[in-house]
DNA sequence: TCTAGTAAAGCAATCGGTTGCATAAAAATT
DNA sequence: AATTTTTATGCAACCGATTGCTTTACTAGA
């Protein structure tokens, strides 16, 4: 357990002052480039590593970014984090990641922890039942930048990164209509969350644009769990006139519902055509494969992290409320395809 | 953007020395309890938060634990991390989480980052192709404790936390045998990893104990991806005498294989009984529901984190190579049940 | 009353970089 | 040759909490 090498050790060996060593290692312009090289190689030789705590203490910043997400256990979130990690590593930032498990209470606690850890900035995707951003006020007051992604909420001085969920919901619903569906059910999550609210909006718009009426009985708000999917299948079974199309705002729930529907004798897509959301791997496990909306997690993570870091480095200002929209893609698979695909020439 | 409150501010207002304030806040015995209360309430009133960097710098420790896992996007890993987070928060430790994405290269990079961040300890689950622990040598040399969980590798001075994969594999295979299977195929991952190696061992032992011979053609090493599952189904379809039982070391892969088998006209469990591993939620999506091995992620995370923290606090020594075994459970579902369940009275 | 003992609090050094402000040496200008 | 400018480096204070050692103020025992 040898002692750590410090800039003082390097300075002593090279007959220089610690100040010079510090500047050299930070590539300060006032240092002669020969000196820099000499110091750099000596540092490497001695196995020097900068003491982040001394540095942070003096600089009053931490090179740490806090990340709060509802859950880690989705393919989507995993790719988001991979993207963030990549960017953060390249920029010499650390990530502190925590999950709210969809509860405001835990989100509040996480925010406090992040604050006490003095993160330089925050990347957040909101829990299901978060009503407001009051628990982030300490950050706003201190001018600590925060970026919301995917599960967002309008907020002054806060960049949002998201896909156009209204349009995506519109496309998904329109696709079902084009496949001949006329009674389309929409199953979604807590509409406090933009992602669900907007998909619902898109659903309604698509119906209206195609001359269909919105039947409130066909809009079902749930928690989108496996259990909810099963219950919905049961509900559909007992409906006087069941839907002929089903748009679920989450693949996993869609898939569990499909399984139960099949077990109850519904044919998919014959009786009911189904579209999910997120392009979770499970969508390719179920038979028939699930039509879904894909959007780029890795890219969303990279952009979120990069925007935050750029802002921290003064390269970009997040002073005006601004929103970055990413592209999505409707991935059509068998669960919704009633017409044979158009001939490809 | 007000300035932060420091112990000097508190000291000045209360006409005390910073030393006393520091000791009081750390509940030092030499401080009068009235003084402690007075300081504590003043600190709260002023919104004081300790500067971890000053503290870390002085104490030469970071109150940070590094976590390296292959991937974040499994239900299992998400629960593990939830458990770690809980324990770490309660003990005032921070977590730095990174994923190796199953690549040694990234694992090495992550280890370096963790080292430079001066984590107090490390919790690691190894990537698929990690051959040795050389990239953690810097930690061993410095005496920084490390605990391996789930994907482990024997190592001096390193606690391992794991389930008895041999026994679990044995139980899964025995269950299939009890259901009347005689040609049981085993599909597993890279047997560099204990989890796969051991499950394979258990599989072989069970066969032998029940008087069945091990047929190498029935042991398939793959990456356990969706694609691998599909290919395996195809392979089985073309076998002269297909297996009547299938034990897959991963639920997701098992499920994709099942789907393809069904599409090829195999009945499950009639023609082939299937058992998976991990109790992933997807096991309850597929029809028939998948028999699988459940083990407690949250608990594994809690125990790993708690053991590490105890060691850091000197309450527990990880000096001898020791292994903590957690319980698992074979969850029998329809995919393997050929006999009606015994009457429950 | 005097001294030893104890409880409570303060002094000052320390952890390892960073940075504003000198300073010294070399180069350029007059 | 004298002066200004540029380049390269050093000095020393600072960031905020911690802690070994002292000091002060009481209390108890002789």
From TrEMBL, chains A, B:
The keyword Transcription applies. Residues 5-59 form the HTH lacI-type domain. This is LacI family transcriptional regulator. It comes from Spirosoma sordidisoli. SUPFAM superfamilies: lambda repressor-like DNA-binding domains, Periplasmic binding protein-like I. The keyword Transcription regulation applies. GO terms for molecular function: DNA-binding transcription factor activity; transcription cis-regulatory region binding. Keywords: DNA-binding, Transcription, Transcription regulation. It comes from the Bacteria. Pfam families: LacI, Peripla_BP_3. SMART domains: HTH_LACI. InterPro entries: HTH_LacI, LacI/GalR-like_sensor, Lambda_DNA-bd_dom_sf, Peripla_BP_I.
């Amino acid at each position: 357990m040898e002692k750590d090498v410090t800039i003082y050790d390097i300075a002593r060996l090279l007959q220089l002052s610690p100040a010079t060593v510090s500047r050299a290692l930070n590539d300060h312009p006032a240092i002669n480039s020969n000196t820099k090289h000499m110091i750099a190689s000596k540092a490497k030789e001695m196995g020097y590593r900068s003491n982040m705590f001394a540095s942070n203490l003096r600089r009053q910043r931490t090179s740490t970014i806090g990340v709060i997400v509802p859950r880690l256990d989705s393919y989507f979130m995993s790719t988001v984090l991979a993207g963030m990690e990549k960017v953060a590593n390249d920029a010499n930032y650390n990530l502190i990641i925590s999950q709210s498990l969809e509860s405001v209470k835990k989100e509040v606690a996480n925010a406090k922890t992040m604050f006490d850890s003095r993160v330089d900035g925050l990347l957040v995707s909101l829990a299901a039942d978060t009503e407001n951003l009051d628990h982030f006020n300490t950050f706003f007051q201190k001018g600590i930048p925060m970026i919301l992604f995917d599960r967002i909420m309008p907020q002054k001085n806060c960049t949002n990164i998201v896909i156009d969920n209204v349009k995506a919901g519109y496309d998904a619903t329109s696709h079902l209509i084009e496949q001949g569906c006329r009674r389309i059910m929409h199953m979604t999550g807590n509409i406090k969350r933009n992602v669900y609210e907007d998909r619902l909006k898109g659903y309604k718009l698509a119906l209206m644009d195609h001359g269909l009426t919105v039947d409130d009985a066909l809009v079902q708000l749930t928690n989108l769990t496996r259990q909810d999917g099963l219950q919905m299948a049961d509900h559909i079974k007992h409906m006087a006139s069941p839907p002929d199309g089903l748009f679920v705002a989450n693949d996993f729930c869609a898939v569990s519902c499909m399984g139960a529907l099949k077990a109850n004798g519904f044919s998919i897509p014959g009786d009911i055509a189904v579209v999910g959301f997120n392009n979770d791997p499970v969508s390719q496990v179920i038979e028939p494969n699930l039509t879904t909306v894909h959007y780029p997690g890795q890219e969303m993570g990279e952009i979120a992290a990069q925007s935050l870091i750029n802002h921290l480095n003064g390269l970009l200002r997040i002073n005006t409320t601004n929103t970055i929209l990413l592209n999505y893609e409707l991935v059509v698979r068998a669960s919704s395809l009633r017409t044979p695909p158009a001939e490809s020439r």
